[in-house]
Design brief:
The complex is a heterodimer of chains A (about 130) and B (about 550). Chain A has helices at about 20-30, 45-50, 65-80, 100-105, 115-125; strands at about 5-10, 35, 55-60, 85-90, 110. Chain A is α/β, with parallel strands linked by helices and about 130 residues long. Chain A has one domain (about 5-125): 3-Layer(aba) Sandwich (Rossmann fold). Chain A is globular. In chain B, strands 5-4-3-2-1-9-8-7-6 form a nine-stranded parallel beta sheet. Chain B has a domain at about 65-400 and about 415-455: Methylmalonyl-CoA mutase (TIM Barrel, Alpha-Beta Barrel), CATH 3.20.20. In chain B, helix 10 (about 245-265) crosses helix 16 and helix 14 crosses helix 15 (about 375-390). The chains are: A alpha/beta (about 130), B alpha/beta (about 550).
Chain lengths: ~130, ~550
């Protein structure tokens, strides 16, 4: 079986990448194939990376409050590219009131500060799209 | 310290400790600080053998200032309680500042939003969803005028957390002061202006390292002549620590950044004693109480030596390290947020016992959002309680002479000097950054800490132990999109109402000056006076210098 392929992306203008890097490394140590995009990615760049890397999972790290703009745009682009079976998860600072809206547009997992790495690894292993 | 007969510790271990350990073993095989530094169970006079009081510690106000730069500590003047704040529009933040000043804050500290920090106007594609979210949006002089409306810049000091576009934002502040009739020779405050730690840790850089360093030396030179009381740079360990470094790495990289700025200033032909006294520092006040106190004490000692012995600064003012501190944002938890009040109080106490010159205390809700006014007031009250009720301000450096604290201080110094050697061998901090050295060191430490948390070797109350199900949610500050709409509309009006020929002229001159070695500050001031935007000014420099892109290090 092929390894789960994860694109970890840091959208928006924010440069606080501690979380993105730690999770990238934890997923890699858990046996996944991890591609970290680096900083300041637009939704267009992230969708393109997911297509090019044949990603099963996209993990967004957002702390700045821009999730309400970035996530809907990304979900739309994924649909256009026929990538709507890619599992999208967000880690970062997301106010409670925004969580239902994000779930509604198809973000499957939202991980707030303090979430154990193990929980995230398990979530991805359970929900990443099934591969031949 | 005088050597005490080496009888103590070994004898004690055999006669008293061993039997006790047999009866009841300790809770862990090894005890470490939050940075992973092993800590012995007991420190005695033997551990500080070789430390000479007058040479290495000395009295406060005397070289090397380990015990503090002021002979009277906080008995003369308390630290400046400076709360960092900013959100939404300049109008909203202006109201918050007035609240803080009424509550007894002694100075202001401006938090800018990401578009401002990254030199982008609100109508740029990358500003989407970011305007006014993490701080206040300031696009042009008009916003700066609103931000300080009704606040006399001649009467307060202001700290501004701004780095890549520091020159532009500082120029706006100067023009507002000028319009209020305040004298540039008298106004005071601080711009963070520390680009090296952006490359190392916080990543809010625009231009490549070398032209970025040139703007900073331009500011040093300009201020030495025109704004002599302004603190031109706040060399920051805060963000290095937040990015996951250890206490030692925070100290070492920050002080080495300081050395780099001084070297660039000297190389640019500035007189060391003209600009070094205006350099200040900014450290994190993290959770490991004694390790933090040792860090601050070591910082003063190392800087004094470096300035006197490496750079041959003559003025005592160049030897004295002054620092701001802020409690550790990264230590705050989203779970059981009221616990954060206690964390912050302890962290603030460590900064005070370490002799901080000014302090920001975080609010309990900051793992969730920007703070509410109530939470921000409680954070300020925490400082006031330490200052006025705890009694710790009655005496200078109360922990001086503690075997443990003096030993830790010495270890911090040794570790820092070892990092200095390594970085010097690479050719300096700019070269070390270009190689990814500090970035890699921090990423390693950050991952190691996360693993320790995962294994519960490090306990975070309410997160990986003492967890509580069904916590009631707390009220948070929710920043909606109205700030973005307001700022966009204002920008559109500004572009119609200003003299666009004057803007274009000033921007062209700025671009041309960037190709020379002329000081850029006068050109930036002209552009600001013409109401050029942050984005327009930064774009002019992007045209000449390009943008920096890092190779990410995981």
């Amino acid at each position: 079986m092929r390894k789960v392929r994860v694109v970890i992306a840091k959208p928006g203008l924010d440069g606080h990448d501690r979380g993105a890097k730690v999770i990238a490394r934890a997923l890699r140590d858990a046996g996944m194939e991890v591609i970290y995009t680096g900083l300041r990615q637009t939704p267009e760049m992230i969708a393109a990376a997911a297509l090019q890397e044949d990603a099963d999972v996209i993990g967004l790290s957002i702390l700045s409050g821009a999730h309400n703009h970035i996530a809907p745009r990304l979900m739309e682009l994924l649909k256009q590219k026929g990538l709507d079976d890619v599992l999208v998860v967000i880690g970062g600072i997301i106010p409670d009131v925004d969580i239902p809206k994000l779930k509604e547009i198809g973000v499957k997992g939202i991980f707030l500060p303090g979430t154990p790495m193990q929980d995230i690894i398990q979530f991805i292993n359970t929900h990443a799209r099934a591969r031949v | 310290m005088k050597t005490v007969a080496a009888s103590g510790k070994e004898r004690w271990q055999q006669e008293t400790l061993e039997p006790a350990l047999k009866k009841s073993p300790e809770r862990a095989v090894q005890f470490t600080t939050i940075s992973g530094r092993p800590i012995d169970r007991l420190y005695t006079a033997e551990d500080v053998d070789g430390i000479d009081y007058s040479r290495d510690i000395n009295n406060p106000g005397e070289f090397p200032y380990t015990r503090g730069i002021h002979p009277t500590g906080y008995r003369g003047k308390l630290w400046t309680m400076r709360q960092f704040a900013g959100f939404g529009t300049p109008e909203e933040t202006n109201a918050r500042y007035k609240t803080l000043l009424r509550a007894g804050a002694a100075g202001l500290s401006v938090a800018f939003d990401l578009p401002t920090l990254m030199g982008r106007d609100p109508d740029h594609e990358l500003s989407l969803g970011e305007v006014g979210k993490c701080g206040v949006n300031v696009t042009s002089l008009a916003d700066m005028e609103t931000l300080f409306d009704g606040i006399r810049l001649g009467d307060i000091t202001t700290s501004m957390t701004i780095n890549s576009p520091a020159a532009m934002i500082f120029a706006m502040y100067l023009v507002v002061a000028e319009k209020q009739g305040a004298d540039w020779n008298k106004i005071s405050g601080t711009i963070q202006n520390d680009i090296l730690k952006e490359f190392i840790a916080q990543k809010e850089y625009i231009f490549p390292p070398r032209p970025s360093m040139r703007i900073i030396t331009d500011i040093f030179g300009f201020c030495a002549k025109e704004v002599p009381k302004w603190n031109t740079i706040s060399v920051s360990g805060y963000h290095i620590r937040e990015a996951g470094s250890t206490a030692l790495q925070e100290l070492a990289f920050t002080l080495r950044d300081g050395v780099e700025y001084v070297q660039w200033g000297v190389d640019a032909g500035l007189d060391i004693d003209d600009f070094v006294p205006r350099i200040s520092f900014f450290f994190n006040a993290h959770s490991d109480f004694f390790e933090e106190i040792a860090k601050y004490r070591a910082a003063r000692k190392i800087w004094a030596h470096v300035m006197r012995d490496r750079f041959h600064a003559k003025s005592e003012r160049s030897w004295k390290l002054r620092f701001h501190s802020q409690t550790a944002g990264v230590s705050l938890t989203a779970r059981q947020p009221y616990n954060n009040v206690v964390r912050t109080a302890l962290q603030a106490l460590s900064a005070v016992l370490g002799g901080t010159n000014s302090l920001h205390t975080n609010s309990l809700d900051e793992a969730l959002a920007l703070p509410t006014a109530e939470a921000a007031t409680l954070a300020l009250r925490t400082q006031q309680i330490i200052a006025h009720e705890s009694g710790v301000t009655n005496v200078v450096d109360p922990l001086g002479g503690s075997y443990f604290v003096e030993k830790l201080t010495r270890d911090m110094e040794d570790g820092t000097l070892a990092y200095f050697d390594q970085i010097d061998r690479m050719g300096g901090m700019v070269e070390a950054i270009e190689r990814g050295f500090p970035q890699r060191e921090i990423a390693e430490s950050s991952y190691r800490f996360q693993q320790a948390v995962e294994r519960r070797e490090k306990v975070i109350v309410g997160v990986n132990d003492f967890v509580q199900e069904d916590e009631p949610p707390i009220e948070i500050l929710y920043i909606d999109e109205s700030a973005a709409e307001t700022q966009l509309a204002k920008l559109e009006r500004l572009r119609k109402s200003r003299d666009n020929d004057a803007v274009k002229r000033s921007i062209d001159e700025l671009r041309a000056a960037a190709r020379t070695t002329d000081n850029l500050m006068p050109r930036i001031l002209d552009a600001v006076r013409a109401y050029a935007t942050v984005g327009e000014m930064c774009d002019a420099l992007r045209d000449v210098w390009g943008e920096y892109e890092e190779t990410p290090i995981i």
